[in-house]
Design a protein that fits this description.
It is built from 14 helices and 16 strands. By secondary structure, the chain is of the alpha/beta class. The chain has a single domain, classed as Rossmann fold.
Length: 384
């Protein structure tokens, strides 16, 4: 892509340029995670988070009938921390691990390099696309994946719709402008009237395509998608576009290629997608409810035993960040997408004896033999 020949871009193309262009793309040239990066995600706040995800995956696999071969796909592997902890947990379940084809779907060569270094001793396949997976049941895990996909925005003015564009003729002085569009063409593509009762529209065309491909795979081969991200559930759409640099919000048009660009997931829109795609059901809860129901407090109690005051305080400080309603507990949501007639209820896991057995086994692991429960960094990308 020759930047000097590009003048006007729809918002989603501008975001893709800023994040993934080979010359200037944010994710193509740096490690954005941790204290030295621009934001921090749940797996880097505390490994407790990833251990709980491991428990969920193990039980979900059992609910599928413990298939002898299945695919576990992490969408967007970050810095590799979550997969590292997942595999460490899975090694306590050799039958499961021997059945599992572990895959990371990652677009950034820079992040793939970081992931491969951290996971160098593990058997993992990296794939650029998800449409050529082996024909086995598939368990997809997406933690803060969909929020990083480029979005389109539309404004309604006097019964006419206008799409947001960015002029980048001068990369040092980009600016927003709008073009009139026919919203019916968009609605024909996604097969529902997204403009109904809306004066503003924000949606990801790429996110819609990912969901469509994933749900087709699940319907064909069985499996599910566990989606964890920050977002809202109101039907009325709102502008959630934001840029983050050095753990602070910044102007989206400043420092192109040097800031993360993200948005809040409209989970009501996702539920509409799933309903229209047919044959699938979805459950939605908050990160707080999910983690607590899955036993994160019990796990914290186990690993904090025999720790000194400072280490114990740090464990519970990080637990609070993940579950407190004023921090990540309510803003972050957990959605399970699965074949409708076999839908698992996310919040009710303690009613299942298998979950109790899994939690008991994982909680019996000596924490002193594991990596530290402390992580660098003190902020995470989030919008109010």
């Amino acid at each position: 892509m020759k930047l000097k020949k590009i003048h006007n871009l729809p918002l989603d193309e501008f975001i893709n340029l800023s994040l993934y262009n080979k010359q200037i793309g944010y994710y193509m040239k740096k490690n954005p995670f941790g204290k030295k990066g621009d934001f921090i995600t749940s797996p880097n706040i505390s490994r407790l988070f990833s251990e709980i995800i491991a428990i969920w995956i193990l039980s979900f696999w059992q609910s599928l009938g413990s298939p002898k071969k299945f695919n576990l796909i992490e969408l967007g592997g970050g810095n590799g921390e979550m997969m590292k902890v997942l595999i460490e947990s899975f090694k306590n379940f050799p039958t499961f691990l021997n059945s599992c084809n572990i895959i990371i779907h990652e677009k950034s060569p820079k992040l793939i390099k970081i992931q491969k270094k951290k996971l160098s001793k593990e058997k993992i396949t990296w794939i650029p696309r998800i449409n050529k997976l082996r024909k086995n049941p598939c368990i997809f895990v997406a933690n803060e994946f969909f929020d990083a996909l480029a979005i389109k925005q539309f404004n309604k003015k006097e019964n006419l719709w206008f799409e947001k564009f960015v002029n980048i003729k001068n990369l040092n002085k980009p600016f927003f402008f709008e073009k009139k569009i026919n919203i019916k063409k968009i609605e024909k593509k996604i097969k529902f009237k997204i403009s109904k009762n809306q004066n503003f529209i924000e949606y990801s065309d790429l996110g819609y395509n990912y969901l469509k491909n994933i749900t087709n795979i699940i319907k064909k081969n069985n499996g599910g998608l566990l989606l964890i991200d920050y977002g809202y559930t109101q039907k009325k759409m709102k502008n959630t576009l934001q840029a983050i640099s050095n753990h602070k919000f910044t102007n989206i048009l400043e420092n192109i290629g040097n800031a993360d660009i993200t948005h809040n997931i409209n989970f009501n829109l996702f539920k509409t997608y799933i309903k229209l795609m047919g044959g699938l059901g979805s459950n939605l809860t908050t990160q707080k409810k999910f983690l607590i129901k899955m036993g994160i407090k019990q796990r914290a109690e186990i690993i904090s035993r025999n720790q000194n005051f400072l280490k114990k305080a740090d464990i519970y400080y990080r637990l609070k960040r993940l579950t407190d309603e004023k921090q990540m507990g309510d803003l972050f949501k957990v959605m399970l997408i699965k074949i409708k007639n076999r839908l698992e209820i996310i919040p009710g896991v303690f009613n299942d004896l298998k979950f109790l057995i899994l939690i008991k086994i994982i909680n019996s692991i000596n924490p002193s033999k594991r990596a530290s429960y402390n992580c660098e960094g003190c902020r995470y990308k989030l919008s109010t």
